[in-house]
Amino acid sequence: MSSDAVGTTSLKSSAHVKAAGWGRGLSTLLRITRMNLRHPGQAALAIGSTIAAVILQVLIPQLLGDAIDQTKVVLGGGATGAAAEQALWVPALLLLAASTLRGLFTMAQNYFAEAVGHHVAYELRLAFYDKVQRLSFSFHDRVHSGDLITLGILDLDGVRMYFSTALVRLLLLTMLIGIGGYRMISTDTLLGLMALSFVPFVAWRSSITQVKLRAIWLNLQERLSVLGRVMEENLAGIRVVRAFSAQAYEMAKFDRASKTALEVAHQQVDVYVPNTSAMTLAFFLAMGLVLWLGCNKVIVGQISVGTLTMFLAFMTILQMPVRQIGLMVNGFARAYTCGSRLFGLLDQDNTIRDVPTARPLEIGEGTLRFDNVSFAYPGTGNRAVLENVTFCARRGETIAIVGPPGSGKSTIAHLIPRFYDVTGGAIMLDGQDIRGVTLATLRKAVAVVQQDAFLFTTTIENNIAYGDPWAKEQRIERASESAQLHNYILDLPAGYKTVVGERGTSLSGGQRQRLTIARTMMLRPSVVIFDDSTAAIDAATEQRIRLAIRRFAKDRVTIIIAHRLSSLKHADRILFVDNGKIVERGTHQELLAKQGRYKALHDLQLRPGDDIVTKYRGAP
Predict the structure, then answer these.
(1) Where are the transmembrane segments (predicted)?
(2) For domain 8-346, is the CATH number 3.30.465.10?
(3) Following CA atoms 213, 217, 218, 223 in sequence, which dihedral angle do they give, to the nearest 10 degrees?
(4) CATH class for domain 368-586?
(5) Interval 118-152: pLDDT, tens
(6) Is the sign of the CA dihedral 99, 105, 109, 112 positive or negative?
(7) pTM listed for this prediction
């Protein structure tokens, strides 16, 4: 598979952003601006420091011009030695004071502008992480985790830099040109217009550059997302890569993704550098015209040397901001593209959420009921995974679900805690439709031990107590005893304080599954679901765990999904599911007596044969 194929759905395509146009772009930038202004103290200090720095910056050419004219007057008046030196002290000190204050205010501008950006980044980081925690399973089914990591790091950083690199810089340049231009035009109209003649050209090129960079930035972010997906997938499956000696293949895949991102980065440079160079050239041409015309005016006595010096000094001051116009335009373009992607996630509608009238779940008898439940996964063309599934389970009962792979067993488990919403029928807990109760109380009442035994990189104790971090040690130990893990933990050098590796890789598959079972037994749910959670455990240990689960199940509904029928014999009722429908139901003995699909599966596990396989699969 090529690197371009890695992952699932992109968060926002280039075509979508291009179609959004200027209106959407302005809306995104205004939204980021409002976020920055939510820190009025630091934003005001940054803006105030910018204004003060600009005023001092514009004042310096005037002071310099006055100093030159005064020097000419002093020297022309015949003053020498101490008298001439004394006459020059005042303008020199004024220039030094203005330059020093300008430097201090510029430093304050940079500090507070960066502070505003980092505060916004902090808020966005929390909002992003909170949104990722709340988005439904169907969203995470579509979007690759590598995309989300890129979004939460690179795109968020693009938004963070907007205030300092774009907004404050725009204010700085606008004020420099506005105030300085007014002073120059009011001093000499023709010379002032020549000094500002580069501004229309720069504005035109900046607009063109922004449009181009906006699309390129989005494309680059998408390429970097692909790169992140490739890296994340490789790190997650590094043992498979090593086991199959596929390092060369993975390196080639990563190289292709890197080259694609590099090509887009080159496009960005190809747009940015020529346009910035053209804008700088326009500035120097304007400066040359000012120098030529100004010298002629000095010769004929229309302006003084100090006035010409003021014009040239002002244009020299403008040189650096003009060169930074490209960076400013880049900042706006990046903020737009990154903000569009980031806000696209933050504004994502969560399909699984509390309805406005949701009430806390109230558990009485603890009865679970499936009433003609049908379900189709989003984006699958409404192809039903479950059809008209109906059953009831009361407190103290154990319901076992069995069937061939892909029959819908795990889907039933995922619907009970509302990982997905049913598309037909209803799931009831004590007569309450689970769509009408709060998610927090529902998921406190329903616990799922999933097939994927995921562990966090922390101590064994913390992994077991994840659902109740303040649980006492005795309760944690009892849960691990029920999961047949306690003795193993005691043999470890650090006992329950032992830190498991990333994803629990320092434990065997069976040990990881037992730890997740212990994590569930720590809680007191009304419904507990074991979704093939003992597949990696040996038969003897599984039998001991089953005995513990039976004691655990006395005052709650227990649903067990498994392939080994030895795990299900004790169930009060067994449901055989195929193609999303319950085709057989009854106790172990009743189903054996029916001589149907369950009996075929039973015989297949005892004595495999082609004729039994055919019967199990439902063929005539």
Answers:
(1) 43-64, 166-185, 272-293, 299-318
(2) no
(3) 140
(4) alpha beta
(5) 999 999 999 999 998 888 888 877 887 777 887 88
(6) positive
(7) 0.75
